Amino acid sequence: MRTVRSLQPSVPASDRLSMRLGLLFIGLFLGVSILLIAWTMFATIADRRLADASSDVAAPVIVIDPKIQTELAKALAFDTLPAATEVHNPFLDRAGLSGVVVASAAASGPSAASRSSATQIAGSSGGGGVASTQSMLSQSGPASVIQSYDVPSRYADWLERQKRGEFVGPESEVLAVEDLVPVGFASGGDRAQEVMLFSASLCRTFSFPSGTRFYNGSLYGFDAKEVVFAYQNGLRSKSYSDTEPCQPNANTRAQNGPGQP
User: Could you tell me the residue range of the domain that residue 236 belongs to?
Assistant: First the structure.
């Protein structure tokens, strides 16, 4: 009887053991990985369900004590900014007078023969009463006697300062409204319209445009009928008139010069 022998060499026992250990390690690694993945998925699903359940629960109502709520409302009202109040100048409004209204007239040429403006002054006096005053501004005709109002002395001082080279204001600022009489107006050329005003105290005629400032007022406007001055917190109108020839004194002649009347 013949005996058959295998030609494959036999594997040593140490090699077989190492192969088995490797397969066992790989199997354990895969099993642990699958368990970790499954645990993570279950934990995520559980957390999501807990979040959904907590969102479905209604928020508790906060009850505030009525007394505390009242005190809080008072505190909020106290913190608000106070309303703006008008502060009067104590040097200009010592008696608490306010609300002065002055009716202004149009400078384009009024058609009425007289002007009037009502000035109402309301305020509290010492006894708490209310006082109102009304002033009428009407046309003034030719004035036969006009006070000088110290115009010659101011004009002489203005000339002296000008001769000394000192800084002086415009010539019109030494003239008084009461001393000026409208005698005509001039227009044409490249200059603005000017009204001709005669000074009785200086015995001299001046010409000024609208807006000129005087010693105690200003030239508000003029037209072919009358001239309007801003004077003493109101308006004063004067009509054109012919002036009587005057005889200037020695001081006035020296001020006007040899070529002036």
Answer: 151-256
Is residue 87 assigned to a domain?
A: no
| Distant-in-sequence, close-in-space partners of 3: CB < 8 Å, separation ≥ 6 | none
pLDDT value of position 218? 92
pLDDT tens-digit series, residues 163-221: 998 888 898 998 999 889 999 888 777 778 898 999 888 888 998 999 999 998 999 99
In a domain, 185, yes or no: yes
Measured CA to CA, the distance from residue 205 to residue 91 in angstroms comes to 39
For residue 237, what are the β-bridge partners?
228
For residue 214, give the nearest of 239, 238, 165, 180 by alpha carbon.
180
Structural domain contains residue 189: yes
The residue type of 46 is: A
Residues contacting residue 137 through CB under 8 Å, at least 6 positions apart:
115, 116, 117, 234, 235, 236, 237
- The residue ranges of DSSP E strands in the chain, in sequence order, are 98-101, 120-122, 180-186, 194-199, 204-209, 217-222, 226-231, 235-239
The domain that holds 248 is classified in CATH as 2.30.30.830
Tokens 């807990």 locate to 50
Helices H / strands E in the chain, number of each: 4, 8
* Residues of the chain below pLDDT 50: 90-148, 258-261
| Residues 36-47: tens digit of each pLDDT | 999 999 999 999
197 in a domain, yes or no? yes
Specify the number of domains making up the chain.
1
* CB 241, CB 141: distance < 8 Å: yes
How far is the C-alpha of 169 from the C-alpha of 163, rounded, in Å? 13
Biggest CA–CA distance in the chain, Å, is 184
